[in-house]
Amino acid sequence: MDDIVLTALIFMAALLYSSVGHGGASGYLAAMAFVGVAPAVMKPAALTLNILVAVIATVKYCRAGAFSWHLFWPFALASSPFAYLGGTLTLPGHVYKPLVGAVLIYAAWRSFRTATGSAPPRGTRPHWAFLLLAGSALGFLSGLTGVGGGIFLSPLLLFFRWAEARVISGIAAAFILVNSVAGLLGVVTAATALPATLPYWAAAAVAGGYAGAEYGSRRLGNPAIQKLLALALLIAGTKMIATA
């Protein structure tokens, strides 16, 4: 019964998160904690599922024209090595979970305010040095927590209004992909245990990720996407605090 419940929760997490360009790792971690999956396999399993969904979301959003290369590459270039470094480290849950949860809840509030305000992009290109610095910090935090980084990058892009919401979702999807791969490479240097039920979880994540990315990349308007993003961030933040 736990396996059935967890598979269903993974499907729903992938569906919701991919609709806003996210891989869903924070949702997978929360679901696995809920049914009592061993902590040693939670992080690598979540990153593996994250990669599958992020591949689908990246392709969908890029094909729909919802992507910006000049915003993506500095973040990705700086974040990848730090995501690997973060993946090799493990901090006690009572240290980072409440802090990250608070950040995500604040980001949810910011995302919802942006959606209701409908403010246009500023149209100014940020300095590449700032993008590299921010990418390094976000990459390390991504690898450390095992969440891919989209839940940190999206609020940053929304706050500075560097792109419209749908483009931000596309950038986040690709950012999550490169950081999840780097983070997983770091994790497997210390822990390679994966559950036997991972193929079933992967199938559920792929199905949910495909449906969510298709819906989010083509059919939703910007305010709706931002409100879904706010909901995803709120869920992730609440779960992290609750499981600290």
Summarize the structure.
The protein is mostly helical and 244 residues long.
Quaternary status of these chains? single chain
Shape: globular
Q: What helical percentage do the residues reach?
A: over 70%
- Biggest beta-sheet profile: none
Secondary-structure element string: HHHHHHHHHH
**What proportion of the residues form beta strands (DSSP E)?**
under 5%
Q: What average pLDDT do the residues reach?
A: 82
> DSSP helix count?
10
Q: What is the first-to-last residue Cα distance?
A: 25 Å
**Unreliable runs, pLDDT <50, ≥5 residues?**
none
What would your notes on this structure say?
The protein has helices at 2-18, 25-35, 39-63, 69-87, 93-117, 128-145, 150-160, 165-187, 198-218, 222-242. The protein starts with a helix and ends with a helix. Helix 3 (39-63) packs parallel to helix 9 (198-218) and helix 4 packs parallel to helix 8. The protein has 10 helices and no strands. It has one domain. With 244 residues, it is an all-alpha fold. It is globular and about 50 Å long. Helices cover 78% and strands 0% of the residues. The mean pLDDT is 82.
Short key terms for the protein model shown above:
mainly alpha; 244 residues; 10 helices
Topology (SSEs and partners):
Blueprint (H helix, E strand, L loop, with lengths): L1 H17 L6 H11 L3 H25 L5 H19 L5 H25 L10 H18 L4 H11 L4 H23 L10 H21 L3 H21 L2
